[in-house]
Amino acid sequence: MGIEVVVEGLTKSFGRQSVWRDVTLTLPAGEVSVMLGPSGTGKTVFLKSLIGLLKPEKGRVLINGVDMVNSPEREIYETRKLFGLMFQDGALFGSMSLFDNIAFPLREHTRKKESEIRRIVMERIEVVGLLGAEGKLPGEISGGMRKRAGLARALVLDPQIILCDEPDSGLDPVRTAYLSQLLIDLNAQIDATMLIVTHNLDIAATVPDNMGMLFRRELVTFGPREVLLTSEEPVVAQFLDGRREGPIGMSEEKDAATLAAEAGAGAAPAPPRRIVPQLEPSPGLPPRAAVARRRRRVMAMVDQLPPAARSAIRETYAADAAAPTLTAPSAGSGT
Fold first, then answer.
1. Does residue 83 fall inside a structural domain?
2. Number of structural domains in the chain
3. Rounded to whole angstroms, how far apart are CA atoms 205 and 211?
4. Average confidence (pLDDT) over 260-284
């Protein structure tokens, strides 16, 4: 099972430029979470801070009792082995075959024999659907295949926490749908804690158990997916509806005068948002262990959530309870 990640009061700047401040959230063990936000809001910086590649000025990131911000470097290095990181562009070595790219972490961080390395690498290549392409160079395959190779490499050390940095970038809608299903299938198979940074609304709507959003150097919200998907917070609503009207501008957030002018112009209200069902594992795979844990966790907090989210959660679980259960036909039934 994955590991809980607790983030407390995290603040990061580059010189005088504040990226985000006082970010506090918990990634529940084994669940899939998504972090949304307009371009330039520091989502990738947040991922690198979780794994200890960047040092925030304040706050803590607690994983199995180790603080990835303030603990000794040796402890941070050891804890980093619990992570698998899928980079935006795959970050593959151009002169190595896919097999050697995926094998690299095993050769670098373990003392396994080549026969064992081959077994593990080929298993991961099969999981991401790249059998037959292992001898190719990154330049000989499509961008979607490079991303899947990057994901296979992230999996070879059996991570308990997987971080995906904009896995959809550069992919068409069909490949993005395949990738979304692959992420859900992975969670069903290995029960890892997953955080996906994206601004793709299809992934956001169908993949995560939990969602958050970064904007104006703040964490706007983080919690069960229903909270964000039903939110009327102006920046969340604008982002989810893909509208020009709202706090997000082309280059940066809009000033008060622009927002006031938009309000005075009386933009048409957005249509009601519908929460689409979350993806389920592909046929033949086990159910996600995270689903039952999440249900217990969310129902324990449901009375503290906003009314719209509360209603959405209760409707979802009522529909689940009412869904027919498939049973095997009895002997002699003739079916």
1. yes
2. 1
3. 9
4. 72
Interatomic CA distance for residues 130 and 165, integer angstroms: 20
Long-range pairs of 74-77 with CB within 8 A, sequence gap ≥ 24: 76/52
CATH number at residue 104: 3.40.50.300
How far apart CA 324 and CA 233 sit, in angstroms, is 36
Host H or E run for residue 108: helix 98-109
In a domain, residue 124? The reply is: yes
Cα separation, 85 vs 156, whole angstroms:
11
Q: To which residue do tokens 């390395």 refer? A: 117
Q: Does some domain include residue 152?
A: yes
Range of the domain at 35: 5-225
Structural contact between residues 102 and 149, judged by C-beta atoms closer than 8 angstroms: yes
Tell me the per-residue pLDDT of 139-177, one tens digit each, with 9 for 90 and over.
999 888 888 899 999 999 999 999 999 888 878 888 889
CA–CA distances in Å: residue 189 to residues 192, 284, 314, 320: 9, 11, 27, 22
Say yes or no to pLDDT of 119 above 70.
yes
Q: Render pLDDT for 77-89 as a digit per residue (tens, 0 to 9).
A: 999 989 999 887 6
